[in-house]
Amino acid sequence: MKDLLSPEFVKQLTREAMKYREAHQADPAKNQRTDAAKLETRISKMMEMASSLKDPAPALREVDKLECERNALLSEIGRLETEYTAASMLNNISEAKIEQFLRGIAENMESLSREALKDFLTNVIGQGLAGPGHS
What is the pLDDT at residue 135? Predict the structure, then answer.
């Protein structure tokens, strides 16, 4: 527990939080939203064209492919927005707030059973190793 609350660890964690925040200042999904709007336009045009064809099957297959692309893009937009929101929560981060947070973790860790503590640490370490954008 001592290491968790050491001034060096608090400073390092604060620096890492600030780096994360700075890396996520601009809207990360701006380009993806533009791409999604373009796909939406293409899908609409393909649907109009399919409705006037004698055999719309090929056009509908293309629409299905575009829909898959759009859904993947919307999923990525959601992930990026989640990261952006998390980063914005770090706008007022300070060493004092990090230390307070770590103190709360330390207090909770002391009350956990060995199994619960192992699960907690595995989860925290796993998220830390994954890092931003690696989930």
Answer: 43
